[in-house]
Specification:
Blueprint lengths: L9 H15 L5 E7 L6 H21 L1 H11 L9 H22 L3 H6 L3 H19 L9 E7 L4 E6 L1 H6 L6 H11 L4 H19 L14 E3 L1
Parallel strand pairs: 1-2, 1-4
Antiparallel strand pairs: 2-3
Length: 228
């Protein structure tokens, strides 16, 4: 059986759970918190970098054939036979393939792959993962459609908030700015649990303003921090 996922400590779990319970005590909204090691493998990004490197390598050979023929002569000590057009083409293709494989192998190191991924793509993938998790775990899971998800993706150093339609109709994405700022401030200091708790507190303030707690307010979604 796979081992238990531990992105944060038990103390972090307790802090976040307590923050969710406190926030929900003032609102009919339901807050779900999720933390993940990474939102995507970015295999397509590695593929694009490897393909770009191979294209550049083959283009360089095509643009500067004399230079690379000189390298070939140097490697063979001047004893290599003159390559035919087909042999030269095969050599160029082999060179490009070797470059592609080399770059792909280097990018198996995920920190480098992440570093080479444009920030816009990182943000898009984190958002896509957050929306997917929201649809599975929170969307339409409450009577008043008042669920909201706080998602943190550690490898990308990014977070997102996704709200159900009733909340989204009253609260624009910009309103969650204070919550995100509180989260980022703590996460940058290596305290993701405290960051999520601070964000949840800010989210509770917003939800309490637009969706105050009513007489009938069942706890419809889990308060605990979910790790994936």
């Amino acid at each position: 059986m796979p081992g238990k996922i531990n992105h944060v400590s038990e103390a972090d779990h307790a802090i976040v759970t307590a923050a969710v319970a406190a926030a929900e005590a003032q609102t009919s909204g339901e807050i779900v918190t999720v933390i993940a090691a990474q939102s995507d493998d970015y295999d397509d990004v590695a593929l694009l970098w490897a393909s770009a490197a191979a294209f550049v390598a083959m283009s360089a050979v095509a643009l500067f054939p004399d230079f690379f023929r000189g390298i070939y002569d140097m490697l063979t000590g001047g004893w290599g036979h003159e390559l035919t057009a087909n042999q030269w083409l095969g050599t160029v293709i082999a060179f490009g393939a070797a470059k592609w494989i080399g770059v792909w192998l280097i990018l198996l190191w995920r920190p480098l792959r992440l570093w080479l991924t444009p920030r816009a793509i990182l943000a898009q993938r984190v958002r896509a993962r957050a929306v997917k998790l929201f649809r599975v775990g929170a969307e339409s899971k409450t009577i008043g459609r008042t669920g909201v998800l706080l998602f943190v993706s550690l490898a990308e150093h990014r977070a997102d908030i996704v709200a159900d339609e009733t909340i989204a109709a009253k609260v624009s994405p910009e309103v969650w700015g204070d919550a995100m700022a509180a989260l980022i401030e703590h996460v940058r200091r290596g305290r993701p649990g405290e960051g999520m708790a601070a964000a949840v507190t800010q989210m509770g303030v917003v939800l309490a303003e637009h969706f105050p707690k009513g007489d009938d307010n069942p706890n419809e979604l889990p308060d605990r921090l979910i790790e994936i």
